[in-house]
Design a protein that fits this description.
Order of helices and strands: HEEEEEHE
Strand content: 25-35%
Radius of gyration: 15 Å
Structural class: alpha+beta
Helix content: 10-25%
Number of helices: 2
Distance between the termini: 25 Å
Shape: globular
Number of strands: 6
């Protein structure tokens, strides 16, 4: 189920984007480290990419990488992060804003997400982590967690009037 090509993104409606990710049980495994390496390298291939979940590169593991600081117009508490088995444990202050997705490159949408979240998970060394995120960074984390539970941002759009065509990022 893995796509080994760095820079290769899985596009909607590929079924892997609809599947719930498999929890990681062995953080030290070669498979986990390979997926993290591929996620990191693939995200680096795209200047505008601020987050990427494992299913977006064809893996079924419950992992995402994010770096909200790549968007220079927003603040980021954490910069580059790798989160294994992420879970939103607290959320508040829903707000509707525009977002897009590497796997849905031709569209954007107005999506309501919490402005503040606490995300629990595991880091690549196997240590528990808790990320308290706000604003854009919170949105990025929620977007990536949606991916690992088999959702894309279009599932969060409430009306067709909230979906927009955008310039594509494909080369």
């Amino acid at each position: 189920m893995c796509n080994s090509d760095i820079g290769s993104i899985v596009y909607y409606p590929d079924p892997v984007l609809r599947a719930r990710a498999r929890d990681v049980t062995d953080v030290a495994s070669e498979e986990v480290h390979d997926v993290i390496r591929r996620l990191t390298q693939t995200m680096a291939e795209f200047d505008h990419c601020v987050g990427l979940a494992a299913n977006q590169i064809g893996s079924d593991l419950n992992i995402f990488v994010a770096d909200a600081s790549k968007n220079t117009r927003v603040s980021s508490e954490y910069g580059f992060v790798v989160v294994i088995n992420p879970l939103i444990v607290e959320h508040s202050n829903p707000i509707k804003q525009r977002e897009g997705c590497m796997s849905v490159p031709d569209l954007t949408g107005n999506v309501t997400r919490a402005q503040h979240v606490i995300v629990a998970g595991i880091d690549p060394e196997g240590k528990s982590l808790e990320l308290v995120a706000h604003d854009f960074e919170a949105r990025v984390f929620q977007h990536e967690i949606d991916h690992v539970i088999g959702k894309v941002f279009l599932d969060r759009v409430t009306t067709a009037r909230d979906v927009f065509t955008r310039r594509t990022y494909r080369s």
